[in-house]
Amino acid sequence: MWETRYQERDLSEFFWFRAEAPPELRRLMESEDRPASGAALDLGCGPGVTAVYLSRFMRPVVGVDIAHAAVAQAKRHAEEQDSPARFMVVEAPALPLRSGTVGLVFDRGCLQAIPRSAWPKYFQEVDRLLQPGGQLWLYCSTVADAPLLSRRRLRRLLQRLGRRRPPRSLSEEILRHLPASMATVELEDRGEFRTPAGRSRTLVYGLFRKP
Q1: Residue 105 is part of which domain span?
Q2: Reported pTM
Q3: DSSP states of 58-107
Q4: Do 140 and 174 meet the contact criterion of CB atoms below 8 Å apart?
Q5: Total structural domains in the chain?
Q6: With contact defined as beta carbons under 8 Å apart, do 51 and 103 qualify?
Q7: 91-106 confidence digits (pLDDT tens)
Q8: CA-CA distance, 152 to 155, in Å (whole number)?
Q9: Which strands make up the sheet holding 39-43, listed edge to edge?
């Protein structure tokens, strides 16, 4: 699916695409508080915009994506910007990097594309890679209003009828999977936004650190 999307669609059609790094990350990297050591890992790097930005401040920088077409675009972007960032085709949450070598993990849109059943593995891998003092920057969104006859809406209805606990919010779900070895620095519900296709989604921003 992702391979086809990257081959056939313009980047502006992806609701998560930005032509520059997010403001929170820019404020960190352009301050004295940026990570002093370790590699930077861009999960779900897409066309490589953030990885190329991070390569101005950290070495090495590795971007990974499930789609070969995305990695090819990222490599071209890095070459155009004369950036040393490197890219690999990787299917998260399996991350083929050495333990304790990463100072910063950046994820904008990768976690939300991974099945919830694989979230424990995702956080285990991030925890394994981060060195002491390493950070996880996370932007994750989910559908805000499911159509009346969708599986999501029917599932919620069955839960109410069965008097089961209502679904956790996205931020609650993230905290539930966060390893005990990682501390929450910031966690914000950013509210709803609309995609170019007109769908409504809720966004969560989180910053976590491994002491």
Answers
A1: 2-12+20-209
A2: 0.84
A3: -SSEEEEES-HHHHHHHHHHHHHTT---EEEE--TT---S-TT-EEEEEE
A4: yes
A5: 1
A6: no
A7: 999 999 999 999 999 9
A8: 5
A9: 86-89, 61-65, 39-43, 102-108, 130-143, 200-209, 183-194
